């Protein structure tokens, strides 16, 4: 299975993040599903991701990654200088996740919540589960 990103489908920041990733992933390394979708819920259960998870999840090579670990592993595969951010993987997870947690905790307040998603083009639609 290819690399799958599960995201909060109600979060405007998460939606913008998915669009950001798609633009920098022309090879189509990543597939996407919202946490709220049937496919997303099935993958969470299949990989044993804690039910309380409400942040971005990366499923890659039979493992799942949460919070900053997911974000940094995603950056490693993007075109451009974003790959450089992967060096922060050496920072201890509690430190990285504290910063990630501030953004995650405030994402609805800072970026809003969505009622619906924009319909992607047919090429991009193929990348959603």
Automatic annotation (TrEMBL):
One of its GO terms (molecular function) is protein-disulfide reductase activity. InterPro entries: DCC1-like, DCC_oxidoreductase. Pfam families: DCC1-like (PF04134). This is Thiol-disulfide oxidoreductase. It comes from Alteribacter lacisalsi.
């Amino acid at each position: 299975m290819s690399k799958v990103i599960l995201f909060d489908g109600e979060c405007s920041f998460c939606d913008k993040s998915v669009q950001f990733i798609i633009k920098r992933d022309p090879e189509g390394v990543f597939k996407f599903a919202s946490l709220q979708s049937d496919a997303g819920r099935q993958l969470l259960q299949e990989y044993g991701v804690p039910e309380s998870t409400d942040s971005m999840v990366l499923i890659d090579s039979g493992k799942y990654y949460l919070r900053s670990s997911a974000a940094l592993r995603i950056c490693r595969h993007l075109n451009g200088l974003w790959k450089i951010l992967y060096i922060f993987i050496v920072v201890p997870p509690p430190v990285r996740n504290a910063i990630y947690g501030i953004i995650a905790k405030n994402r609805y307040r800072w970026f809003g919540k969505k009622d619906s998603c924009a319909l992607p083009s047919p090429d991009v639609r193929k990348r959603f589960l």
